[in-house]
Amino acid sequence: MKLNLIDTHAHVFMDHYDGDREKVIARAGDEKTGMINMGLDIPSSKKSVEIAENHEGVYAGVGFHPHEAKDFGASALRSLLDLSVSDSVVAVGEIGLDYYRDNSPREQQRKAFRAQLDLAVELGLPVSVHNRSSTEDTLGILKNRDELPSGVMHSFFGDYELAGEILDLGFYLGLSGPLTFDGESDLRDTVGRLPLDRLLLETDSPFLTPEPYRGKRNEPAFVSHIGEELASIKGIGVEEVGEKTTENARRLFSLDER
Ligand code: NI
User: Fold this and answer.
1) Which of 2, 8, 26, 255 counts the most CB atoms within 10 A of its CB?
2) CB atoms within 10 A of CB 258
């Protein structure tokens, strides 16, 4: 299937979709929108792989979210390694740090983050990185490594300077629903100055629903609204945004080899 858009970060395995998961995936397929569902722990990573193996244009990330890092250890790492043998696995994610919620002790979060960066290097896979109120440590960990995997800063928030630091690492920047929100004009200004060949579209479904659906459950088909916003910011056509960001996703996640 030739994809028009790719939602590079979703969680369609979550129970929010238990009543209509197949319809949600089909709606994305109807619009030729691909998706990568990023795991949050072992059961959800497993579910993500199962879903990807059974649907065209659907891929999987396997990983342990910082919220769950308290349960991360050697056995989790082994399970992620086992899951990664599936051809549908294109990323290690969602990994990173979250000092806003602090659902796991920070030292545990850093340990899980480092171990999964090592795993990504070992597997030759890119990472999808979550960073909330933890920019200093997130960048510190990424910068102070001998070998850094390729990757994307998921749901990028920040100024032009921070974007530059992330781009300097060779990372891509993921744009999500908040780009469409009224209060985020600073983010739009920043994005307007960023190179199109390093941007990815993502929904983080079921969260971060873009306008005009803000407040409702998100789904991968809504990624088109983020693409439209990016087109308007850049003053280019939606087709070009679709083409370029899909090409970026194919490059980063090596989708043509799947
Ligand atoms: Ni997420």
Assistant:
1) 8
2) 12
Question: Residues 227, 228, 234, 240: is their CA dihedral positive or negative?
Answer: positive
- The verdict on pTM exceeding 0.90 is yes
Cα separation, 208 vs 95, whole angstroms:
18
Kindly give the distance from the C-alpha atom of residue 204 to the centroid of ligand 1, in angstroms, as a whole number: 5
Domain that residue 197 falls in: 5-257
Q: Which residues contact 188 (CB under 8 A, 6 or more apart)?
A: 179, 229, 233
> Which CATH number goes with the domain that contains 114?
3.20.20.140
pLDDT in tens, 93-135: 999 999 999 999 999 999 999 999 999 999 999 999 999 999 9
Split into its structural domains, the chain has a count of 1
- 8 alpha carbon – ligand 1 mean position (Å): 10
